[in-house]
Amino acid sequence: MKQTEIDNPQLQMEEDESIDSWLKDVDKNNKNCIRVDYLKNGEKAMKGSLIYKQNFEVEEDFKIFHFYLTSARLITINLDFHILKQFNLETFHKRIELTENAVDGFLLFLGDLMNEMLVEIDQFEEALKQLIWSIRIRNGTGILERVFKCRHELFIWKNLFIPINELKMAIDEMNFQDSKKGEILTCTCKRIERAMVLLDGYEREIDSIINLEEVISSHRGNEIMKTLTVITTIFTPIMALGALWGMNFKHMPELEWKFGYILSIILIITSTLLLYAYLKVKGWTGDLLKGKKKGSFFK
Fold first, then answer.
1. Residues forming a β-bridge with 44
2. Which residues cross the membrane (predicted)?
3. Is the confidence at residue 152, as pLDDT, over 90?
């Protein structure tokens, strides 16, 4: 880089002007963005901001860093390595010193950042696995709450990875010749692709869980309505006869019968049993009277 400054003072002056312009506005930005610019001599420059940490509970709690990148220079602002648990700063510094240009150095950082995120995604995968088996063991409204909490967390992960994928595409768009076929570029791209494939797979799993919950809820709702309908139908004779004999008309000969009370009980029981038997023969009661098995979705 020092040799470049000596041999190309005009290039250095134009780049410094671009950096000064970037520095004036960098603190105003608190969201993901990528801009690709060209200096007057055709030199490519990419500048932007990237959110690399996000609290899943609080929207305003996130970490963002700003960067300026050319083939020979990489500048970052607000990049806190101490919150990146998988980063070994000593090893990282040695590796980045071995890179041939600034683009490779930036790609090396992105690759290690992806490794950091993939470790955290493994924890998300474990939580999702526990959720899947919880549905089998004890399904309820609490499970549905956990499903949608996982879905929201997945949205946040995708919101973090999409700008990184866009950043990779922007670097590819700028077509830096020195890094076009490098091992660092290949490794970083593979990690980004792996992360996107994982997130797509988790999204399909959560969608399947939601679809399963909808089927179960629909089935149980139908069972409840069916049960209430059958119970109402079975007790119709009791309600009808009770309403009939509960009237207060003056002339009701049944009230004077010696065995009227016993006959009314026999009539109610007989009509109820006959009605139940009819429903049973028709198959309309289904398995409503059978107990639900533990760990079963429908039985």
1. 38
2. 228-247, 259-279
3. yes
